[in-house]
Amino acid sequence: MANSVAWQDVGAARRDLIGRVPHDRFLKKICKGAIKVGRDKTNPIRGNLVASTLRELATHVLHSLAPENEVRRCIWFKQATDTKTVTRSQRARYIVQAGLPNDFVTKKLKVDAGAMAKPLLAAMDTRGIVLLLLYLALGDSDDSPLIINQPEENLDPKSIFDELVDLFIAAKNVRQVIMVTHNANLVVNTNADQVIVAFSGTHTPGKLPPIRYLSGGLESAEMRKHVCDILEGGDRAFKERARRLRVGLDR
User: Which residue range(s) make up the domain with 25?
Assistant: First the structure.
């Protein structure tokens, strides 16, 4: 029942979005494709495909509302030093204030364009996409394996711990979860049953580098060391786990 309600909400959001830009054929196709692949329970990588599709959708909407050539014409535009293109922040700012000068916007209109652009950037961030994806994918009635690549991408550490860890713990009760991650919380505090560490050897020109793998559980001292050495926040994750389980930390 929860899943059907979720899909109803997604359908309503799709209709609302398309209704705002009824002549955008690409938007219609990408929305339809995302929902179709997301509902295909026989596809073990549907989560990754939906996330990629929705990221493409967010980029398309942002670029449609703020074309690069229009942003560059604005009197306030300055090329960012770390890229040759227009940034997402600049596109969001254009959507809010267009080409109006900063002084006019702040002093005459008394509008904080930066503050108004923040919710827009948050909506375009992959945080909402990842969480929506997981809520839909981790349904009680779905016991197929879940394969997901770096769900922590573009999420702050607190959001990872507060919003993703419990979802994966719940998922483990009904299905197999296979995850690629660089975040220690998603390994340690989800109580991963099996950890596989990949090691890349010396790269020889014209050849692929040799790769070897080490697998084991978190009860292994060697594996715990690798987690702390390789993953982001490894030490902190183990300390938090020890605190939650009320046990001593033995490295």
Answer: 2-124
Query: Could you tell me if 145 and 48 lie in one domain?
Result: no
Question: Based on the domain organization, do 93 and 184 belong to the same domain?
Answer: no
Q: Over the stretch 12-44, which tens digit does the pLDDT of each residue have?
A: 777 877 777 778 888 888 888 888 887 787 777
With cut-offs at 50, 70 and 90, classify the pLDDT of residue 127: low
What's the N-to-C CA distance of the chain in angstroms?
Answer: 44
* CB neighbours of residue 217 within 10 Å: 12
Q: Are 95 and 81 in contact (CB under 8 A)?
A: no
Q: Could you tell me if residue 130 is inside a domain?
A: no
Give the pairing type, strands 211-216 and 195-200: antiparallel
Q: Number of C-alpha atoms within 13 angstroms, CB side, residue 38?
A: 27
Q: What is the dihedral of CA 251, 189, 233, 225, to 10 degrees?
A: 30
Give this prediction's pTM: 0.55
